[in-house]
Amino acid sequence: MLTRRGWLLGAGAAVTSLRSSFAASGSSVLTAADVHVAGYPTVEAMRWMGESIAAETGGRLGLRVYHSGQLGRENDTINLARFGVLDITRVNMAALNNAFPATRVLSAPYVFDSTAHMRHALDGPVGREILRRFETRGLVGLAFYDSGARCFYNVHRPVHEPADLHGLKLRVPPSDIFIALGRALGVNPTPLSYGEIYSALQTHLIDGAENNWISFDTSRHFEVARFWSQSEHSYSPEVLLMCKERFDALAAGDEELVRAAATRSVNYMRELWDKAEEASKAKVLAAGIQVNEVDRAAFHRATAHVLEHYLQDPELDELYRGIRAAA
Ligand code: GTR
């Protein structure tokens, strides 16, 4: 049987051989990973970034995107990037919450009012400050991408208020914040990696999960979980992280070029996001998903202590104030 370690070593070897074949031709290629499928806005935005880098360097530098979790689970790709096996990974804040305290304020419940608010806050000083913090642990924060509003979905019933969730076993990302959020709502929070959710739903290991419209659609979770409740409890955004060692080793001028291409890809990503969100919503509605509004104020009240707990940290409190000032 192929062990997890064996598999990761295999992925590392594939990346290394790709790099050497490019090096032999006098050009070099950056490798990037994403757990989402081809066509997902984050994957397409990274490809766009790669094309832009290749065009500007006349093909001297390129970017190869491994989508669909080909290089492993999100948490694994963070370490692959920290240790230089992989150059860039696109992950959600949830995967970083435990190891990078500053990210907690971005994932906590009811911090952002809307996608527009989140974009505005991340484009300003709060976003820049959080990106900077990754450098202390071997990573360079290149840019934030959207992740929309996370909502609950399950196989049993519409959820209107927190009590409707009581007793359900819900998958949450492996993050203490999401576990605390689940507990605050009376669910049995079950941390699993993204790729494990579909079969966990099918085999009734879990009753539901939470995510945004595009993930609900492209992961095909909607085929099993037929009730979607518009809780919008977190906007936990995505981030593009690059191996710091590899970034520092880029040729003169290329650091700025890579940073600038990542920054420009954000606008492209947002355009794709807005269109894909509408398309995914329409698709799952046409497939017969039952959607309902929730008593959002009740959800907010029930989870307020989770945010308050994290705001006892003065640094998080300051970042939070910056976020609210951008509302
Ligand atoms: C998605 C996010 C993924 C992954 C997933 C999850 O919204 O884009 O990177 O974190 O959620 O819940 O695991």
Essential attributes:
binds beta-D-galactopyranuronic acid; 4-stranded mixed beta sheet; D-Maltodextrin-Binding Protein, domain 2; alpha/beta; 13 helices; 327 residues
Describe the protein's architecture and organization.
The protein is an alpha/beta fold and 327 residues long. It has a domain of 133 residues: Bacterial extracellular solute-binding protein, family 7 (D-Maltodextrin-Binding Protein, domain 2), CATH 3.40.190.170. 47% of the residues lie in helices and 18% in strands. The strands form 3 sheets. Strands 2-1-3-10-4 form a 5-stranded mixed beta sheet. The termini are far apart. The site of beta-D-galactopyranuronic acid has 13 residues, from strand 3.
Number of helices: 13
Number of strands: 11
Characterize the biggest β-sheet: 5 strands, mixed
Structural class: alpha/beta
Q: Tell me the overall shape.
A: globular
- In spatial order, strands of the major sheet run 2-1-3-10-4
CATH topology of the domain at 150-235 and 279-325: D-Maltodextrin-Binding Protein, domain 2
- Give the helix proportion (percent range): 40-55%
**CATH homologous superfamily caption of the domain at 150-235 and 279-325:** Bacterial extracellular solute-binding protein, family 7
Low-confidence stretches: none
Order of helices and strands: HEHEHEHHHEEEHEHEHEEHHEHH
- Ligands in the structure? beta-D-galactopyranuronic acid
